[in-house]
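Trying the structure run again after the queue cleared.
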Amino acid sequence: KQWYQRRVAITAGDIGTTETKGTVLIKNAEELKSFSVDEEKLIENQVKNLADAGITCVVSGGKVGDMMMHFANKFNIMVVRLMSKWDLRRLCKSVSGTALPNLTVPSAEETGFCSVVQLEEVGDTTVVVFRQEREETAMSTIIIRGSTDNIMDDIERAIDDGVNSVKVLSRDQRCLPGAGATEIELAKQLMSFGQQTPGMEQYAIKKFAEAFEVFPKVLAENTGLKANEVLANMYNAHQDNISGINAGINLESDYCEVMDVVERGVYDLYLTKFWAIKFAVNAATTVLVVDQIIMAKQAGGPKPRKGQADADDD
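Done. Tokens:
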């Protein structure tokens, strides 16, 4: 089934449920009949007001009563139930609507619009698809299908990494040589700076330079290469300050070889490396500062009072 050009009203609460806690004294059958008629008229007026306002689809984030479904079918209004608040927020962003606390007639700014609302079968599951037929949409959904959960988890992580990479590139287009080339060059420069620094600070600088070797080591070990041999080849290639700056690990080779990552088009995001290094340095310095505070203060609580103890201490 397909419905075109739908005006959408979104509510975060229950609709069509009139059950409340209370006591009603009914003396005869006429009072019981009038009580149920008033309840039907209340819900019918709500649905009729929505239909008069041009609303053809109602999305609820809570329960939907049977009487509400009856009058929705009568006035040809589609009702969709979404129990997830996250999905409800995504739908509001997709149709440019506002989630109301109660089912009332939304204003022009609160009403959402969707080009096509249709039922589709994905595997054995029937889903409701809200589709916008325009060039730029505020939201997109990617459906992942696979034979096992592990394969789908890997695909989901790959898609998430790709989407986040494009998101970061839209903020900052700068890139750095990948495959461990940037980390080894930073380690070489820091090691050279540490050798020229007098005093005890040179040892801290050299250890900080060695920390950058973790990135190419992990890449080599994940590929099945010898980490020490890869580091030696990369340091040897980076001795050339002109052509060796872009030397990285050749992960496609069965041997511990290096390659020019710029020629191969292997890049890493600048912002990713910037914030990773910044957060790692802040974490390390915070641990060192806390360690100094602990060492500077003498351990133990307050000194015990002399004389007889108070009764509250017991």
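The first strand starts at residue 2 and ends at 11. Worth checking whether this holds up in the mutant runs.
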